[in-house]
Amino acid sequence: MGTWGTGPFDSDYAADFVDRLDAADADARLELVSSTLHGMAQATGPIHDGAEGVAAAAVVAGRCPGGERYAAMEGFPTRPLPKIPATLREVAAAALERALAPESAMSFGWVTPEDAAAWQAEVERIRAVLLPAEGDAGHG
């Protein structure tokens, strides 16, 4: 796997995921995001490669208030997604919790400890966008 940065779209797996999203029709795009996030959120044991799940969560975050930064990132899908159900925000946050869990292998293998910390901080920022504030009904 090639990884060139600590952002959610900065790996070959994430880029391939976005390419599949851009190639699919609207309903298939939403299903791909949903199935990727549900699979990661429901996984048991260590998460060895969750780059697609992190990218999918960033795609959802890019459609949420406060997530404009992700929608503007290089690598974000060029084709718009249909309205994202508010419940998918919760699933995306749960998927990121799995990525950040101590038993997850995703925070290991970085070239420097600073890269690992930067990746973790970015995933935490995505997760913060996904978790609706009190009184926020969720937007999509």
TrEMBL record:
The protein, known as: DUF4259 domain-containing protein
Alphabetized InterPro entries for the sequence: DUF4259 (IPR025355)
